Amino acid sequence: MNKNSDIIIVGGGLNGLTQALALADYGFKVIVIDAQPLPTHRDPEFDGRAYALALTSVRMLKLLGVWAAVADQAQPMNEIKVTDGRAGEGPSPWFMHFDHREAGEGPLGHMVEDRHIRHALLDAVAIHPNVEHIAGETVLIHIANETVSVTLSNGSQRTGKLVIGCDGRNSATAVRAGIKRNGWDYDQSAIVTAIAHEKPHHGIAHQFFMPTGPLAILPLKNDTSAIVWSQPHETARVLVTGPEAQFLDALRPAFGSFLGEISIRGKRFSYPLALSVAEEFTSDRMALVGDAAHGIHPIAGQGLNAGLRDIAALTEVLVAAKRRGEDIGTKAVLDRYVQWRRFDVTSLSAATDGFNRLFSNDNPILRGLRDFGMGAIGAMPKLRQNFIREAAGLTGDLPRLMQGKQI
What is the three-class DSSP state of 336? Predict the structure, then answer.
């Protein structure tokens, strides 16, 4: 079977589904090719995975009609507290405190469980008349006569004017285009799970920097918090595969007692941490978004938000080109996307890498410098407000969808 469309998206994760909806809302015929089998039911159980969505990301999801389906399950993040210290010793007296009231535009962001946002996107894609969502493994991408064809493992083909790679850090789409990646391993793995606690979190997110790596404690609904805990690879493996009691014994000194007694809610996951940025974000009739273009350290919780900003920018570029009667797959069009996103991605990658290197050590000189820096930021309202706006995604050249405006 050979079926035509305007755009083929390879990858059916959060970025791929969101990109499909954004483009389909502006009249593009979109096919999403998902390497995983399409879900036949909605799993009601929480598996421990959750995402931090910045204020601007929430604005875009509202425009796409997705946010209404998850709003009741979303936990606002009203404050962020950043501290430095050692496990078992408590935090340094110097810290940074960001309050949403200083930004004046609502919560800094929201925490949403993976199952809620994923299911909302799947449901929206399933009923959209301009989207076809299929399961299949991409085995060949061929470009000829101003079209691109994607061949699946079952022999069927899909054709369009443009392919968008949303297939993660190990993007086969990028590999097929000959795009190389730059980056390095952090010699750490991120442990991800959810923790139930006795006391309410009051919508406050915590980032605790320790010599072995940062621990993020992110508020969820019902006296529960998601954690992202960076540890050396072998330590992470033991903590994820070992007994729950062993995991909690290791976590308590880092987590502290400020939320009372803790217990595990959901599964434990781990994944290796690395910086991985594609040398090019586009090629012939192809564009990369999200982790396929850039994988960064989760230290600032901006991974998914950066991908959503890619999606908003690429959508705006393609919609404008379509209205001008341009061929959306040409280099001239795709270069506008690169020009829009490259500097922001480079800056974010450098910032997250630098923060991780600065804080993930026990050097007394660096400890003194960073504690002084956090104290200075906390004492300077203007500088503090800049950090708050950065956390909320309000800085830079925002695409219209992230401003909450139609294109």
Answer: helix
